[in-house]
Amino acid sequence: MLVQSNVSLRHLNTFGLDADARYFINVQSVDELTAVLRDPEWKGTPKFILGGGSNILLTQDIDALVIHPGIKGITVLEETEETVVLAVGAGEVWHDFVMYCVDNGYGGVENLSLIPGTVGAAPMQNIGAYGVEIKSVIESVEAVDIESGEKRIFSNAECEFGYRESVFKKALKHQYVITGATFRLSKKPVLNAAYGDVQKTLQEMGAENPTIRDISEAIMQIRRSKLPDPAEIGNAGSFFKNPEIPVAQFAQLRETFPEVPGYPVDAETVKVPAGWLIERAGWKGYREGEIGVHARQALVLVNYGGGTGAQIKALSEKIQASVADKFGVRLNAEVNFI
């Protein structure tokens, strides 16, 4: 195993920010991971886990041993006429895994097409899009304790999934390295095309009896039309979570802003699109030097090239203050600040 020093992380974060790791290692297996975690040479060195870097904002260099889990592989563990259970390595590219499922007729993740990042990061964030969250298909998550090097299997319930949350972002933050996950997918899927954009795109495609491939293609068309490609403009997708507010607060908000959209979460809570709030607060298309807010999607903060994480963080705080002042709603970042 090769541990490198002073390694640029520009290629490992989708904002394309220039930050360095004091030490860096790419582990290719669970055994390699446990070996480095138990190595006396690195025992006292702080550890930082970095996958595809699609949901982080690097505001500084990382004075730690940065571990990049490159664990690959997709294995069929169990299969019936109805379902299939797959074990997937944390280092697999998420979208590649989705395409593998689509190609094989395994339904359940097609609505999550084109989400950047790795399989290992997906359960940490409980990634979701267009009516589907990953918690609905995950059976378990395999992880290694950073301190002891011991392996542990977390059941779906033990992952404590919430809206863009999991136990790995809360109670067990920085305590485990996710090395893989198992997914139960359907061979006779029930499609989720409830979102208006998805229905409209399927109609434009002429997909009268859509398949999971049609859903996937529709999602990709929508995402490409709304979101910038990180390879062309640095970004991390949705920067803020959609705020969930009490029904009474939403009713008051609608008295002042009758056009504000809202989607019931339950009997007591309504979800308001953060992008709508940011756009109505005047930030869509805003540019400040080499950073800004995307011209087509106000929920996306961008680095045009040469911006810094500190500048993007400062801009996000201005947006939060502006939205809170105008609407009385607090936006919380979906992106993790480092």
UniProtKB/TrEMBL annotation:
<dbReference type="GO" id="GO:0071555">
    <property type="term" value="P:cell wall organization"/>
</dbReference>
<comment type="similarity">
    <text>Belongs to the MurB family.</text>
</comment>
<dbReference type="InterPro" id="IPR006094">
    <property type="entry name" value="Oxid_FAD_bind_N"/>
</dbReference>
<dbReference type="InterPro" id="IPR036635">
    <property type="entry name" value="MurB_C_sf"/>
</dbReference>
<keyword id="KW-0560">Oxidoreductase</keyword>
<keyword id="KW-0131">Cell cycle</keyword>
<dbReference type="GO" id="GO:0005829">
    <property type="term" value="C:cytosol"/>
</dbReference>
<keyword id="KW-0573">Peptidoglycan synthesis</keyword>
<keyword id="KW-0133">Cell shape</keyword>
<dbReference type="GO" id="GO:0071949">
    <property type="term" value="F:FAD binding"/>
</dbReference>
<keyword id="KW-0132">Cell division</keyword>
<comment type="function">
    <text>Cell wall formation.</text>
</comment>
<comment type="pathway">
    <text>Cell wall biogenesis; peptidoglycan biosynthesis.</text>
</comment>
<dbReference type="Pfam" id="PF02873">
    <property type="entry name" value="MurB_C"/>
</dbReference>
<keyword id="KW-0285">Flavoprotein</keyword>
<dbReference type="GO" id="GO:0051301">
    <property type="term" value="P:cell division"/>
</dbReference>
<dbReference type="GO" id="GO:0009252">
    <property type="term" value="P:peptidoglycan biosynthetic process"/>
</dbReference>
<feature type="active site">
    <location>
        <position position="334"/>
    </location>
</feature>
<feature type="active site">
    <location>
        <position position="164"/>
    </location>
</feature>
<dbReference type="InterPro" id="IPR016167">
    <property type="entry name" value="FAD-bd_PCMH_sub1"/>
</dbReference>
<dbReference type="InterPro" id="IPR003170">
    <property type="entry name" value="MurB"/>
</dbReference>
<keyword id="KW-0963">Cytoplasm</keyword>
<keyword id="KW-0961">Cell wall biogenesis/degradation</keyword>
<dbReference type="Pfam" id="PF01565">
    <property type="entry name" value="FAD_binding_4"/>
</dbReference>
<dbReference type="InterPro" id="IPR036318">
    <property type="entry name" value="FAD-bd_PCMH-like_sf"/>
</dbReference>
<feature type="active site" description="Proton donor">
    <location>
        <position position="238"/>
    </location>
</feature>
<dbReference type="InterPro" id="IPR011601">
    <property type="entry name" value="MurB_C"/>
</dbReference>
<dbReference type="GO" id="GO:0008360">
    <property type="term" value="P:regulation of cell shape"/>
</dbReference>
<dbReference type="GO" id="GO:0008762">
    <property type="term" value="F:UDP-N-acetylmuramate dehydrogenase activity"/>
</dbReference>
<protein>
    <recommendedName>
        <fullName>UDP-N-acetylenolpyruvoylglucosamine reductase</fullName>
        <ecNumber>1.3.1.98</ecNumber>
    </recommendedName>
</protein>
<dbReference type="InterPro" id="IPR016169">
    <property type="entry name" value="FAD-bd_PCMH_sub2"/>
</dbReference>
<feature type="domain" description="FAD-binding PCMH-type">
    <location>
        <begin position="15"/>
        <end position="188"/>
    </location>
</feature>
<dbReference type="InterPro" id="IPR016166">
    <property type="entry name" value="FAD-bd_PCMH"/>
</dbReference>
<keyword id="KW-0274">FAD</keyword>
<keyword id="KW-0521">NADP</keyword>
